[in-house]
Write a structure and sequence with these properties.
Layout: H1 2-28, H2 34-54, H3 58-67, H4 72-103, E1 106-108, E2 111-113, H5 115-137, H6 141-154, H7 164-182, H8 186-197, H9 200-228, H10 231-253
């Protein structure tokens, strides 16, 4: 037992040493290789922001309620399909804003002013502050409102036919229901902000992973999540992440 413990400590120390060396090498690598590391950082940022934005959101409850009376796989397909489509739309809008800023730059004192990056910072700060204020207020009415809106949204949703026909009908209905519900949502604007200031590939990959994970949790037991996980804690984590990534984006503007 003691030998296994020392073996574990030795491997852990070696792993930490190698990780530090690799990190140092990555930070010092030339501009040809550096973007590959940057994409992974952006991917993780997008994943964390989207995942914590979606937990307890209206689309989360829609997926959970639909999964309670339909096939989980069918509901997941429709929900994730809509979120993936919305992610693509958000990234396209963000990159369009970025390219317009490149073509028609805003100059301040003879220096190009990256208005797209500053807009992204402002948007992330806004979501961070509002999310933290909601968490600090301790008001559960917002969560209840999200649940009630989700119940109202699916109240008239009915599958038609049987077998494959019913499954296809549910997927299509779920897709459009979630797509409409997600339009103008916090994660929608968060994705636009990230795409305007970061690599679109990293944003798409991270956002899709975040949506997939959150949707999977909703389908597998979203109604039980509130029993074990505090919505207040989720809000604090999400709000903090918004502010952290706003700070990172702001620093990168001048780096």
């Amino acid at each position: 037992m003691l030998g296994q413990k020392w073996h574990f400590l030795l491997v852990s120390s070696l792993f930490k040493h190698i990780s530090r060396q690799l990190l140092l090498q990555n930070l010092l690598m030339d501009s040809y290789l550096f973007p590959s590391l940057r994409i992974w950082v952006i991917l993780m940022q997008a994943f964390l922001l989207i995942f914590f934005s979606e937990l307890g959101d209206k689309t989360f409850f829609i997926a959970a309620l639909l999964a309670a009376r339909n096939s989980g796989a069918v509901v997941f397909a429709g929900t994730f399909g809509a979120l993936a489509a919305m992610t693509i739309v958000s990234v396209v809008l963000g990159r369009t804003f970025h390219y317009v800023d490149d073509i028609l730059p805003f100059r301040l004192g003879g220096t190009d002013f990256p208005i797209d990056d500053f807009a992204a910072v402002c948007l992330l700060v806004y979501f961070g502050v509002t999310t933290l204020l909601d968490a600090a207020s301790g008001d559960e009415l917002k969560i209840k409102d999200e649940q009630e809106e989700a119940e109202l949204a699916i109240s008239e949703l009915r599958g038609n036919g049987a077998g494959i026909t019913a499954a296809a009908s549910t997927v299509i209905s779920t897709f459009f229901l979630v797509f409409v519900a997600e339009w103008g949502d916090k994660s929608f604007f968060s994705t636009i902000a990230l795409a305007a200031a970061s690599s679109p590939l990293g944003v798409i990959g991270g956002a899709l992973a975040g949506h997939a994970f959150a949707t999977l949790l909703a389908v597998l037991g979203g109604s039980l999540l509130g029993t074990y996980v505090s919505e207040k804690v989720i809000a604090y984590i999400g709000g903090t992440l918004f502010l952290v990534f706003a700070g990172v984006t702001f620093i990168e503007i001048f780096s």
